[in-house]
Every structure is written in structure tokens, then in C-alpha cells.
Design a protein that fits this description.
- This protein is an alpha+beta fold and 209 residues long.
- It has one domain.
- 38% of the residues lie in helices and 17% in strands.
- The protein contains six helices and eight strands.
- It has helices at 2-34, 57-70, 95-100, 107-116, 122-128, 200-208, and strands at 44-45, 50-51, 73-77, 131-134, 139-142, 151-155, 169-177, 180-184.
- Strand 7 (169-177) and strand 8 (180-184) form a beta hairpin.
- Helix 1 (2-34) crosses helix 2.
- It is globular.
Length: 209
């Protein structure tokens, strides 16, 4: 019986992932159309590996406004997500604590992660970064402070548990491929997950199989 319950929960979470992914994909691509069919506000061009200008608030201003029109958002927290009702206190492990818990990582890997992936550390995820709460309760957490989620964490069932990487919490990035814009498992955290879960890369692959 416990195995059946666990299997059922995984199916439910996978379906919630598909639904949220579709919602985001449609809203972000509609937003590209709304700003003239092209934007530099993307994570990376996966064909050339050239970074977009997703950290620049001025470049992303119009795109952010379009995304916030096209997503059904019930609440926006520009910081202090828990204090402002978007998150619970310490709802998630950060990539720093998640990796520290994994004995297979070397000292160099830990140092490199903390240097290059600070936007997904425990404090930034829970207390610092922009959070969208959608009407269905699902969450979109930006990698950056008060800028449209381009590199993002998504929680498919919001504040409900388990609130764990690879269970209900996954990494995506709004990226470019040629002339097309896509939501892809790119950047920090795509291969990280907690016990019993799967990586963001694997969840994305399963959804497309």
C-alpha cells in the first residue's frame, strides 16, 4: 500500500508539472509576441551558448510587464516571500545546503556552486528573490531580485508539501533556440534533487516523451 500511495503522488505531481509548464510556456511566448516578437530578456541561446540580457531590469521591463499581464497571478512578493505570505518560513533547501548534504561533491564543486549559483542559495530562494503566486497556488521563484523570472524555480503545488527539489520543486529557464523561445532545464540546479525525487532535466524529458 505505501508503494501505491507513493506512486500515485508522483503521478499527481508529474501532471501538475505538465500543467504549470504549459501555463508558463504559453504566457511567456505570448509576452514575446506582445513586445514585438523578439526580446533579449532570455537566459541563453542554446544553439550559440550566448547569454541573454536577463539580469538587466531596463531591458526586461516591458517583457516583465507583459508576463505579469499574461500569467494569472494572485500575489507578487518582490522580496521576503515568507514574511509577505508567498512562502512559508524556510520552505526550501537552497542549492548550497542541498549540495552540502551530498557527500559526493568535492570542495572545488561546492566552492564553484556557491560562487556561481548564489541566486539559488537557501537565503535568496526563501527571503530575497521575486516570487509569483499563481491563481492555482503554484509558485514561480526568480533567480534574481525583483526581476522577471527567466532562470526560475517552479513549485507545482505551491506551499503544499513536500517542498523538495525533484519532487514538487524544479528548475527551468526561459531560453532561446534559433528564432524560437523555449522553457528548458538550463543553468544551476537542473541536475539536483532530494532523496526519492528526479532532476529537473529528467522531469522535462519525461514530460516530452
Amino acid at each position: 500500500m505505501p508503494a501505491l500511495v507513493s506512486h500515485h503522488k508522483k503521478i499527481v505531481l508529474k501532471n501538475q508539472y505538465k500543467k504549470l509548464y504549459s501555463t508558463l510556456y504559453q504566457a511567456y511566448n505570448k509576452s514575446v509576441y506582445d513586445v514585438g516578437g523578439i526580446t533579449d530578456c532570455y537566459h541563453i541561446d542554446v544553439t550559440t551558448r550566448v547569454q541573454g540580457k536577463w539580469n538587466d531590469k531596463n531591458i526586461c521591463k516591458d517583457f516583465r510587464e507583459a508576463v505579469e499581464r499574461n500569467l494569472r497571478i494572485s500575489k507578487i512578493c518582490t522580496s521576503n516571500g515568507a514574511d509577505n505570505g508567498c512562502l512559508q518560513q524556510d520552505q526550501y533547501k537552497g542549492l548550497d545546503t542541498l549540495i552540502t548534504d551530498n557527500p559526493d561533491y568535492t570542495e572545488d564543486e561546492l566552492e564553484n556552486n556557491n560562487k556561481n549559483c548564489g541566486g539559488l542559495n537557501k537565503n535568496t530562494v526563501n527571503n530575497r528573490n521575486l516570487v509569483y503566486v499563481l491563481n492555482d497556488g503554484s509558485l514561480v521563484i526568480s533567480y534574481t531580485v525583483d526581476n522577471v523570472p527567466i532562470s526560475m524555480l517552479i513549485d507545482v503545488n505551491g506551499q503544499k508539501g513536500p517542498n523538495k527539489w525533484g519532487h514538487d520543486l524544479f528548475k527551468l529557464a526561459f531560453s532561446k533556440e534559433g528564432n524560437n523561445y523555449k522553457l528548458l532545464p538550463e543553468g544551476c540546479g537542473v541536475d539536483s534533487y532530494e532523496k526519492g525525487g528526479i532532476s529537473s532535466r529528467e522531469m522535462w524529458r519525461e514530460m516530452h516523451n
